[in-house]
Amino acid sequence: MLNLQLDDKVALVTGAGQGVGRRIAIELAAQGCKVGVNDLFPDRAEAVATEIRAAGHLAIPLTADICEPQSVGDMFHRLLDGFGPCDILVNNAGVPPTLREPGAKRPNFAETTVHEQHAQIALNVNGTMYCCREALRQMDGRRGRIVSIVSEAGRRGEARLAAYSGAKAAIVGFTMALAREYSPLGITANCIALGAVVHEGIRSGPLSSNSGPELAETRARIFRTYPAAPGLGRLGTPEDVSAAVLFLSSPLAAFITGQTLGVSGGYHMQ
Fold it and tell me: Which residues form a coiled coil (predicted)?
């Protein structure tokens, strides 16, 4: 196994209660990190932390609403008390719970509400900034890694996801600015852009595990938009994402900063 030199690093993963975030937390712990498992829902955070501990690794649940700066501050204090200062921050939370609900609609932008727009900005832009501010304070004088999970929607735009696309694009710009400010201090900042990733957190639609034959053509159409999908016989998985996070979090990626790595099967190329 390749030694990623992550033993005893302290990592915090937001939105780690299911799906991509869960897998990132599990893999960081398996590499020797002490992992703070954040989620908005206490039962999810506790379940993943328990799963990690059962495998013989170190983790603590950190329930917090990253849209609230006080909640974020408290979360980082709990991480500090439990494991020490943050070495690795993975900003993974980015889809409001309402978009995960079965039957959630995606109207044109003009038909969305201001509340929906604000929710996207609060979670993606503000939440990422709140977490980065606290992490950077703990990384002061020490080498650190910030990895933000974004979407290819933020690089190419997606119809009926205008606010989401804009919020993800903002994270990319913010990350490049952080890289310019903090890389001279040994702290790198990068993004990973995702396309379709199949995981248990998707409860409805063509990518859910319980989708029926009526969505077969939709699934096939999605499949054809990913150049790597036919060769692999699948779409993206949480493991694809966690592998990229591990690399960018490690000393092996010390000279990589301000970049956005597409882990999307060629959906967007540049």
Answer: none
Walk across the sheet containing 10-13 and list its strands: 58-63, 34-39, 10-13, 88-91, 144-151, 187-194, 260-263
- Whole-prediction pTM: 0.93
148 near 131, Cβ under 8 Å?
no
pLDDT per position as a tens digit, 9-68: 999 999 999 999 999 999 999 999 999 999 999 999 999 999 999 999 999 999 999 999
Which DSSP helix (H) or strand (E) runs through 263?
Answer: strand 260-263
The model's pLDDT over 193-228, given as tens digits with 9 standing for 90+, comes to 999 998 776 555 556 555 555 556 777 888 899 999
- Extract the tokens encoding 81: 């008390």
Give, rounded to a whole angstrom, the gap between the first and last alpha carbons of the chain: 31
- What the chain holds in terms of domains, given with CATH numbers, is 10-197+237-263 (3.40.50.720), 201-235 (no CATH)
Active site residues: 164
237 CB-contact burial (10 Å; exposed 0-12 / middle 13-18 / buried 19+)? middle
- Tokens representing 120 are 């996207």
